Structure formats: C-alpha cells, structure tokens
C-alpha cells in the first residue's frame, strides 16, 4: 500500500507537469471553438489513447471545424476526406498507376496516409467505402495491389456522421463501428454560447493558430496516460459493466435481458479502462476513480450494444440501457 501511495504521488506530480500541454491545446481551441468542451475532451482522449473517434450530430455543430482546428494546433500531417455516395475505395486508400516509360505499375497513395484523418460525413458513403477504412483503422496498414504499406504513427481517424434517420445516410457496418474507441453525441450549444458564436461571426477574418504541440509531445503524453494508476476494484467495476451487457440477469437486471440483442465485446473492456485513464489525466489526477469510468462509459458502450426489437417497440434506446447499467452496477 505504501509503495502504491509513493507511485501514485510521483505519477500525480508528472500528470500536473504534463497537463501544461493540455492547457495550451485548450487555450488555442478556445480561440476558434465556442463551448463544446465535452467534444474537445473526447477528441483528446482518443488522441492520448491512440483510439479512433466517431462524432455524431446534426449538421452545423462545428464537428468538422473542431477536428480541423485540433489538427492545426498539433504539428502532424492532416487530411480531410469528404465522404459522398459516389466515393470509391481507391479514392481513400490509393491505387496503382501504369508507368509507360518504365513498364511497371507504381503505387499512388491515397489521403489515408496522414497522421490525422477527418472522415467527414462518413455515413453518406456506401458500405464498400466505409469498409475500406477497416484495415486502416485496425491494422494501421493499407494494401495497394500486391504491396502492404504501414500507415504513419500516430494514425488517428476522427469521423463525423449525421444521425442515420437523415436522408442519404447509410448505417455503418457493426465491425467498423466497433473499431471506434468512442462514439460522441454532439449537442446544440447553450443560449449564451450561441450568442457568442453570433458575435464572433462579425469578425470574418480567419484566426491564426499556433502549432503548440508536436508528435513527440503527444507520444510522451501517451506514455504518461499509460502510467495512470487503476486499482483492481476499478478494473473489476469495468469488467462488471461490460459483462452486464451480455448477461444482465447475473447482475440482477432480469428486465434488461430481453432489451439487448447482443452486448459489448472485450474490446469495450479495454477501451473503457484506457479512456478512464485518459479522462483522469485530463482531470489532473494520477489515478482512476469510478467517476472517470462513468464519465466515458456512455461514449465507449453506446455503439457496442444493440437494442432488441422489443426495446425498440418499447421506445428504449441504447442510451437508456447504458444508463440503467450505471444506475444498478455496484460502484466500488
């Protein structure tokens, strides 16, 4: 116990030091983005955990602007891909071109060969194009012709999508959705925030942003996040939450069994622990609390649980299911 206390104290001191970098990011982001602190924090969690992020919200909520602004602040290569119904997989990953002079096929790499990818309106492209991202996101490599190429490190996909009820959208394949560490619901700004947005629009000039963070700093922050202490009781809490999505009756949630068609995979357990660590880091703590798990739990679980037809008939969605889990699973 004493050794753990000493370690936690040392980790906490380092967390305080490294959070100066986080402060710089927030300061620069605030020069462009009004409000949306929740979304910015989730983007940073993905960045620090090397996990892909899916942002969902109606058009006009600054999803694209937030990701592109973050890319300007961080000194990394950035590409924006606008997903449309006529997009082809080769437009994403690249293709081979025949060189007449040399008599050979040469690779022409696509826009995924960058550190930070903004996949804008990802669910407006057909399933074949969405699936082309799968190998990139999971294996961090691309196959063009007979050759396989490693993607840059870090490699992070930050995708935006419109609610699937909107016209011209396609639901993402389950296998791809599961690759996203977090699915973040982006909400409307408050009245005061919207008033400030209106005032800022009077200044038509583009804000010059400073590249305040380099790749090496991001890698260093990732190392610090991995050091964040997570107690065995917190680990058990994470496992119980995910297990309850598969076997609710075991946790006294008999009424939830018919509402869940299938639960979260072990990938959810890993991502939930990682995201809780990153959240603790942003909150300037060297250890994880149950509140960290609760704070990121919805973002990790909402896209990994499929509600049954019975749940849909009763107008119960995955948000309500996840909330019931957190209300009933015993907190350590």
List keywords for this structure.
332 residues; single chain; disordered N terminus; 48% helix; 5-stranded parallel sheet; globular; alpha/beta; two-stranded parallel ribbon
Description of the structure:
The chain has 332 residues and is of the alpha/beta class. It is globular, with a radius of gyration of 21 Å.
What is the succession of H and E elements? HHEHEEHEEEHEEEHEHEHHEHHEHH
Spatial separation of the terminal alpha carbons: 17 Å
Structural class by secondary-structure content: alpha/beta
Largest sheet: 5 strands, parallel
Low-confidence stretches: 1-6
Topology record:
Elements: H1 2-30, H2 37-49, E1 52-56, H3 63-73, E2 74-75, E3 78-82, H4 89-93, E4 94-99, E5 104-109, E6 116-120, H5 127-139, E7 141-144, E8 147-150, E9 156-161, H6 174-177, E10 180-185, H7 191-201, E11 213-214, H8 215-227, H9 232-246, E12 260-262, H10 266-282, H11 290-301, E13 306-307, H12 309-313, H13 318-328
Parallel strand pairs: 1-9, 1-10, 2-11, 3-6, 6-9
Antiparallel strand pairs: 4-5, 7-8, 12-13
Helix pairs in contact: 1-8, 2-10, 9-10, 10-11, 11-13
Brief sketch in words of this structure:
The chain is an alpha/beta fold. It has helices at residues 2-30, 37-49, 63-73, 89-93, 127-139, 174-177, 191-201, 215-227, 232-246, 266-282, 290-301, 309-313, 318-328; strands at 52-56, 74-75, 78-82, 94-99, 104-109, 116-120, 141-144, 147-150, 156-161, 180-185, 213-214, 260-262, 306-307.
